[in-house]
Automatic annotation (TrEMBL):
<dbReference type="InterPro" id="IPR010158">
    <property type="entry name" value="Amidase_Cbmase"/>
</dbReference>
<feature type="binding site">
    <location>
        <position position="87"/>
    </location>
    <ligand>
        <name>Zn(2+) 1</name>
    </ligand>
</feature>
<protein>
    <submittedName>
        <fullName>N-carbamoyl-L-amino acid amidohydrolase</fullName>
    </submittedName>
</protein>
<dbReference type="Pfam" id="PF01546">
    <property type="entry name" value="Peptidase_M20"/>
</dbReference>
<comment type="similarity">
    <text>Belongs to the peptidase M20 family.</text>
</comment>
<dbReference type="Pfam" id="PF07687">
    <property type="entry name" value="M20_dimer"/>
</dbReference>
<keyword id="KW-0378">Hydrolase</keyword>
<dbReference type="GO" id="GO:0046872">
    <property type="term" value="F:metal ion binding"/>
</dbReference>
<keyword id="KW-0862">Zinc</keyword>
<feature type="binding site">
    <location>
        <position position="194"/>
    </location>
    <ligand>
        <name>Zn(2+) 1</name>
    </ligand>
</feature>
<feature type="binding site">
    <location>
        <position position="98"/>
    </location>
    <ligand>
        <name>Zn(2+) 1</name>
    </ligand>
</feature>
<dbReference type="InterPro" id="IPR036264">
    <property type="entry name" value="Bact_exopeptidase_dim_dom"/>
</dbReference>
<keyword id="KW-0479">Metal-binding</keyword>
<dbReference type="GO" id="GO:0016813">
    <property type="term" value="F:hydrolase activity, acting on carbon-nitrogen (but not peptide) bonds, in linear amidines"/>
</dbReference>
<feature type="binding site">
    <location>
        <position position="98"/>
    </location>
    <ligand>
        <name>Zn(2+) 2</name>
    </ligand>
</feature>
<feature type="binding site">
    <location>
        <position position="386"/>
    </location>
    <ligand>
        <name>Zn(2+) 2</name>
    </ligand>
</feature>
<feature type="binding site">
    <location>
        <position position="133"/>
    </location>
    <ligand>
        <name>Zn(2+) 2</name>
    </ligand>
</feature>
Length: 416
């Protein structure tokens, strides 16, 4: 297949302006974003993305999970489209680039094709996947998971946020529930551009990450039940302190992850104690343990050791403990052909590059089950993400988007 000429590159200023424009929607309190899924801000961001796509000549499809599909026609309408995209939803204290760079990098690809008046055989479709973050409605990558047949739609609709609102109701409320059957679309290939969200590329001075694999993820929600009691008048030996049990279990989480150094990681980012009153011993603690590793056997070992340690701690303290698997996926091997398209693009464009395993989960990890899929990454400052101070440079954004452009357009086959 003919590859784009090395001088065919995206318009970095236009991409950057679009990123900054989108960042105005659902602003955080410290320069980042709080545009959580299915909030009014998410709806506003979707509307802006749709307007931009239509201005670029695309038609917009919308499925029953709110996944958005902006289609640029190819010369062969029957050819399976090449999909490219990521997510517009953010963490509550998220950055301006996590997910957004991949969606707007896809839009910039369309805008550049228009500028250069390039036709491709395969249509190209830019996607925004609903609820990649999984912060408001667990699990992460919910809608790409339904699309890939990993989750049932009814189960997804029933997922509730901390206020008891359901995904299905909120999708209807913001007016972004489509009619298209989720998962009915067939793809020639899928590409996702994403910031690394880790320190490797910046530390090595490398412009582009060629993502060959994605590490696996496990989310176990642990509920420890003790007994509410007065913090002042209850003798220490009589206490059933769920907060203390949680602290001891979280120490074990750190120990278990470090026992599989250097690749395994573990932490709890979601922690609730009840009744969360200054002078009440917590009678209940609910927290989600996030374990990750490139090796499935290591993930399974960490899950098993968490349960054994938690049960031993709670039995010793006279408390109850329950576990619920609320998210997870096995380690991912991306498609070698798509990975090669990304590597060749970086070579052709003269960008420094290295193979990398994705530390974070992405929609591509699920889409990889239903279509040849690969990712391209750009560095981020200090490897920081899921923090409002998340930052990238315009040059890094350009390098990633240029490589994305070349990989997608080569796969979509330029028509001379
Ligand atoms: O959890 C993840 O890895 C992704 O950022 N949702
Ligand atoms: Mn992301
Ligand atoms: Mn994220």
């Amino acid at each position: 297949m003919a590859a784009p000429a090395a001088n065919m590159t995206i318009n970095a200023d236009r991409l950057w302006d679009s990123l900054m424009e989108m960042a105005k929607i659902g602003p955080g309190v410290a320069g980042g974003n709080n545009r959580q899924t299915l909030t009014d801000a998410d709806g506003e961001g979707r509307a802006l993305f749709q307007r931009w796509c239509e201005e670029a000549g695309c038609t917009m499809g919308l499925d029953t999970m709110g996944n958005m599909f902006a289609r640029r026609e190819g010369t062969d309408p029957d050819a399976l489209p090449v999909y490219v995209g990521s997510h517009l939803d953010t963490q509550p204290t998220g950055g301006k680039y996590d997910g957004v760079l991949g969606v707007l990098g896809g839009l910039e690809l369309i805008r550049t094709l228009n500028d250069l008046d390039i036709k491709t055989k395969h249509p190209i479709v830019v996607t925004n996947w609903t609820n990649e973050e999984g912060t408001r409605f667990a699990p992460a990558m919910l809608s790409s998971g339904v699309f890939a047949g990993v989750h049932e739609q009814d189960w997804a609709y029933a997922r509730e946020d901390a206020e008891g609102k359901s995904f299905g109701d909120e999708l209807v409320r913001i007016g972004w529930k489509g009619d298209e059957e989720v998962g009915a679309r067939k793809m020639h290939a899928f590409f996702e551009l994403h910031i690394e969200q880790g320190p490797i590329l910046e530390a090595e001075g490398v412009d582009v990450g060629v993502v060959t694999h994605g590490q696996g993820l496990s989310w176990t929600q642990v509920t420890v039940t003790g007994k509410d009691a007065h913090t002042g008048s209850t003798p220490m030996p009589m206490r059933k302190n769920a907060g203390l049990a949680m602290a001891r279990i979280l120490e074990k989480v750190e120990e278990i992850a470090l026992s599989h150094a250097p690749h395994a990681v573990g932490a709890a980012g979601h922690i609730d104690v009840y009744p969360n009153s200054r002078n009440v011993i917590p009678g209940k603690a609910v927290f989600t343990v996030d374990f990750r590793s490139p090796e499935l056997a290591v993930i399974r070992d960490m899950e098993a050791r968490l349960k054994a340690a938690a049960e031993e701690i709670c039995t010793h303290m006279g408390l109850e403990v329950d576990f619920e698997k609320v998210g997870g996926f096995d380690p991912v091997d991306f498609d070698e052909g798509c990975v090669a398209a990304i590597r060749n693009a970086a070579e052709r464009l003269g960008y420094s590059h290295r193979n990398i395993i994705s530390g974070a989960g992405h929609d591509a990890c699920w889409i990889n089950r239903v279509a040849p899929t690969a990712m391209v990454m750009c560095p981020c400052v200090d490897g920081l993400s899921h923090n409002e101070a998340e930052e990238i440079s315009k040059d890094w954004a350009k390098a990633g988007a240029d490589v994305l452009f070349h990989a997608v357009v080569e796969t979509a086959e330029i028509v001379e």
